[in-house]
Amino acid sequence: MIAVGAVCNTAIYQVDTIPPPPAKAVARAATQVVDGMAVSAAAAFVRLGGTAAIWGRVGEDEVGAEMIAALASDGLQVDGIRRVAGGRSSHAAVIVDGAGQRLVVPYHQPDLDPDPSWLPLAMLSTASLVHADIRWPDGAEAALRAARAAGVPTMLDAEVGPPSDLHRLLPLADFAVFSDAGLTALTGLSCVEAGLRQVAANHAGHVGASCGADGYRWLEGGTLHHCPAPEVSVVDTLAAGDVFHGALALALLEGRPMAEAARFACVAASLKCTRFGGRRGCPSRAEVLAAGG
């Protein structure tokens, strides 16, 4: 899998509660991870048994070099990460409360040149799927468009973002996989089925939405399907949706029918929620299969 999107240096803090401001909260655990939606999906893809490359941008700073090294140490291919001359790397802070819910504060540096003309599109000949998030829309569009031309399947993480970006990227995705919040933000509809039907009316490919503890819902042949998520004791929901995307992509590429692929992805994402640390909590393939995935 080739994953295209933002690359971010993220500090994660675990607290009992997130109090309203002005306030202070003492963390009882903390960690740091290199992530981003597509990055975390790719890391899950690798953790579950696949191989993945990252296409993205970091700054020409010490943090950028450290992020590339960290992703390589996690088994991801990093030749497609560009260090932008004069640019500064993106970063984020995340606070996770005692119920596993989180406050995410990302800052994507505006001095990271958005021009995607340098992307190594020749590498598409080695790819089984291109997965993109919407945090670098120019790069996502270039990669998805080239993948379509090359006959490589495409998946879009349709998360909350500018509607104009989603409208330009959705037609390029064979698999449009929303979060429930992203679906509502785009359609203005709180009902997942109604939102999916609105999107599907103008989209010929797969349309689905991951709904947290409610699992995954998608349309197939005009019929709404649902895969429930296993009940777990939630510790940290950060990156659960990204793990879902990576697991779903892997299962589909292995030839599983959508219902089985959704089950595999729901189990992987649910198990991730039982562990603190964002994408670092992604389970192994053996753990997912043992849990019924």
Explain the overall architecture.
Helix 1 (37-47) packs across helix 7 (240-253), helix 5 packs across helix 6 (192-200) and helix 7 (240-253) runs antiparallel to helix 8 (258-272). With 293 residues, the protein is of the alpha/beta class. The longest helix is centred in the C-terminal third of the chain and has 15 residues, at 258-272. It has a single domain, classed as Ribokinase (UDP-N-acetylmuramoyl-L-alanine:D-glutamate ligase), CATH 3.40.1190. The strands form 2 sheets. A 9-stranded mixed beta sheet has the order 5-4-1-8-9-10-11-12-13, sandwiched between helices. The mean pLDDT is 97. The chain is built from 9 helices and 13 strands.
Descriptors for this entry?
293 residues, four-stranded mixed sheet, UDP-N-acetylmuramoyl-L-alanine:D-glutamate ligase, alpha/beta, 33% helix, nine-stranded mixed sheet, 9 helices
Layout of helices and strands:
Blueprint: E1 2-4, E2 8-14, E3 29-35, H1 37-47, E4 53-59, H2 62-73, E5 81-84, E6 90-96, E7 102-107, E8 130-132, H3 137-150, E9 154-158, H4 163-169, E10 175-179, H5 180-187, H6 192-200, E11 206-210, E12 216-220, E13 223-227, H7 240-253, H8 258-272, H9 285-290
